[in-house]
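Most newcomers find our protein records easier to grasp once they have seen one. Each record describes a single protein and holds just a pair of labelled lines. A learned vocabulary of local backbone shapes supplies the integers on the structure line. Nothing more is needed to start thinking about how sequence determines fold. The record below serves as our worked example for the rest of this section.
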Amino acid sequence: MKIKIVGAMTALNEEEWIEESLRRKLAYLDKVVIAEGAVVGHPGKLSDGCHSSDRTLEILKELEKEYSNLEVISINRKWKSKQEQQMSTLKKAKDGDWILLSSPDEFWPDSFRENIENLIRGFPIMKEFIFPVLNLVDGAKYALVDPKTHWVADNVRHHQHFFQFQKGMFYVNHPTINDSKNRDVFTHPDYAPYRKYIKYIPYNHYCYCAKIENQIRKRIYYFLRDGNKSMEKAIDIVRRKLDTVGYFYPNSGIQIKMLYRRTHPLQYRKFNDKYIPENIDWDAISEELSTFKEIPKK
């Protein structure tokens, strides 16, 4: 049985991740489709009113010329919603394809393809596999883990990343998908027998080793969109939630920050020094976004 795996991604201001992330994924995926650009209501820094302000789009175009299995989608306007942007990638899939949803700052083991094919063949009735996310922080020197097991906490929210596509599937909103009967395939009980959690194959998430301002703007967008908050309130919530490891609660009992001694995909890279909340100019962010009036669409 031929297994086809298609990567579906979106990107905005991901210059520091995008090239290496794609080169790695293109090595073990049959195809990658990535939609670049801003979504209405996202207060990111932009070029031409709708594209990344850094070299993200330029890098994507260069890579598209190099790789025949890479397709870049870029439009000359803002995407109307996150749903529209993500659907543009999903429309490239065919019935029976396996879909890997991934962000540029998420990296999977080099053995991903071999592991996945073994899982698909070993559990032929499964339609989805769920993997733990290992959040690396403070220059990837530390990981956020369960205080008892020293591994990814089971009660940390998981995201939908790897599933078998069926005709009629559509994005409702980040980060889950519904089927043609409008059932959320990630949470609906009808799909429970066909989902399997694989605890021993984590993916590494490096977002808090990145430029923190991009993460701040992304999370402001989530509160504007999903929380129906005003800009002032969204900024205030994000500001209060950010701590020394970035938007997590390492002392909450759910997870702790622990020195990470295992290998990981970017262990050779030198990251910026530890993120320091006091270095963020919140007044400048608030002033800049005070005139931002776009309303994000769910």
Notes: The chain has seven helices and 16 strands. The chain has two domains: 5-135+157-205, 209-289. Helices lie at 15-28, 56-66, 82-90, 112-122, 212-226, 231-241, 282-289. The domain at 5-135+157-205 is CATH 3.90.550.10 (Spore Coat Polysaccharide Biosynthesis Protein SpsA; Chain A).
